[in-house]
Amino acid sequence: MMLNRLNHIAIVVPDLNKAVENYKNAFNVNISKKIDLPKHGVSTVFIEMSNANIELLEPLGQNSPIKNFLIKNPIGGMHHLCYEVENINDSVKILLKKSYTILGEGIPREGAHGKPVIFMHPKEFNGTLIELEEA
Ligand code: CO
Q: How much distance in Å is there from the Cα of 99 to the middle of ligand 1?
C-alpha cells in the first residue's frame, strides 16, 4: 500500500483574510500565520487538526496556478487532497510504470511544507487533483 495518512485538504479562497476570520468565527480554530509562496503563486495558511490539516490557498501574483480555478469557482472550492507517501521517487516510478499522468513531467518539487511533492492528473481520479508528499 503506497498511501499513508491524509496530510491536508486544500481549499482555494478568493480572500484569505476573510476565510481565516470565517473559520475562526465558526469553529474557534487556531490558524497558522499567512505564508507567501511566490514560487508557487499562492499565499497559504494551515488549520491543524488532530488527523489532518486544512490548507487555505489564495492566488499570489499574475501567473498563479489557481487563478483559473477562481474564475470557474468564484466563491472558492476544494482544490486538492494531499496523501503522504514513504518515498516520492519510488512512488513516481511505480505510477509512471502504470501509465498514470503526473503533472510537471513527474519531477518532484518542493511543496508548501518544504518536502518534495508531485501532483497527479484529476482526469484519472474522478476529477480529484491528488498531491503526494513524502513524509
Ligand atoms: Co497541498
A: 23
Confirm whether pTM is higher than 0.90: yes
Number of domains in the chain: 1
Q: pLDDT tens digit string along 4-42?
A: 999 999 999 999 999 999 999 999 999 999 999 998 899
Provide the CA 126 distance to its chain's centre, in angstroms.
17
* pLDDT for res 132: 97
Q: Give me the CATH number covering residue 62.
A: 3.10.180.10
Q: Which three cell numbers stand for residue 41?
A: 503563486
Instruction: Give 107 Cα–ligand 1 centroid separation in angstroms.
Output: 16
* Distance in angstroms (rounded) separating the CA atoms of residues 46 and 31: 6
Q: Which domain holds residue 45?
A: 3-134
